[in-house]
Amino acid sequence: MNNLSAKNWYVAAYSKELKPNTVIKRMILGKNIALYRGDKIVSALKNSCPHKMLELSLGKVQNDELRCRYHGWSFDKHGRLTAIPCIGEDEKILKCSVKNYVVIEQDGFIWIWPSDQMPPLDSAPPSYPNQTGYYSYDLSSCLRTTADLVLENGLDCAHTGFVHTGLFRSKPNHYVEAVINTKQSGIEIQTIGEGEKKADKKSILSFLTKDTEIYHTDEYIKPHTVYVDYKSNYISATTLLICTPETKETTRTYTRMATKFNYFNKTQGLVLKQIVKKVIKQDVIPLC
Is the pTM of this model over 0.90? Predict the structure, then answer.
């Protein structure tokens, strides 16, 4: 799980986080990036004005360009300097630019290729479209830990009966079978015989399964994603966990939950959303 080099696509934000004519700061693999949206298009520049090195994320978006807050230098989506407000009448604009990064927006995610080299022509971010008929919602956290530990936690069922007792599961009460399949994209784990004995049904998960068989798979998708799929006769629930390493010590996570009930889908989905928030808080201490 440690193949997290700059030559990969990483989520920088949810699309809804970046409103028109706004700019936010993002850190990916130690690279400070100013991510901004003009009227429609999203662009990403090195977060440092070459004039006085002020972070461009402190500036404003005007006419699809990013203007530095300090002296008003403006840069287009390619990072080229386009305007210096204080320039003399007889002076020419300097030939100056800042690094720009390739950005692709799809499925409600904003992806960045943080390498100094251009992505291969056949390279594209993975596609995770919303599932038809499901109530979905997005959560994000900034964690003081490495991405590989977050991914391992996403695959680790053994901790849930202890850390999330009463919410996700009760304490372990019987053995289950785990079938592990190695795939080109990563690893898939199918759990067989999952469920709780009637005498020990003390978690919300047991209520949602309604004494039916549970279909449960966990999948690690290289290099930064975990996909979890639960199904019973009463509910279908999926979790998409995408990790973006900010530094060697911090990771930003993007979690998309999707649930489908037999009835009152949205109402029960809202309740489950609050439960998921509590589960995440039990796993981590947020930084921001």
Answer: no
